[in-house]
């Protein structure tokens, strides 16, 4: 097995220092986009592979998190396009396993991560977010959940800053409308 050169070792160290601290945020954003922990993990893995492959194009000391989020978002869009063009497939083994699970009435999950996620965001709130069109949901999540600036979001999504402001305003209004029923059910009143 060949030893790594000093340049390769330095690249790995720089990558670890700049990129690895953002894995949790990447996963959370991937989970919000995909709504599936396995798909989110795959998306993050794909993002990390691409980030390492193109790390030479990253300017050290700049906003690594924004750079990673842009890669993740582009990967998500590319995967979505591929899936939308592909006919729907059914895996017999998955269906059979699922059927056996339902039949045995053992559908309760023990996945701690899933339980924690459900406790953090109530189903009604999560559903309200899911009801917002993707362009608006993405901007709301990046701004209000991940705390990116308008400029960072504009760079990540490669759209003008005015579009970001517009999508954020409209996304928040759509979310507000979705949550009005939720608030009323829980006893909150609108003044």
UniProtKB/TrEMBL annotation:
Pfam families: Sigma70_r2, Sigma70_r4_2. GO terms for biological process: DNA-templated transcription initiation. Residues 124-173 form the RNA polymerase sigma factor 70 region 4 type domain. The keyword Transcription applies. Residues 22-85 form the RNA polymerase sigma-70 region domain. GO terms for molecular function: DNA binding; sigma factor activity. Belongs to the sigma-70 factor family. ECF subfamily. The keyword Lipoprotein does not apply. NCBIfam families: sigma70-ECF. Keywords: DNA-binding, Sigma factor, Transcription, Transcription regulation. This is RNA polymerase sigma factor.
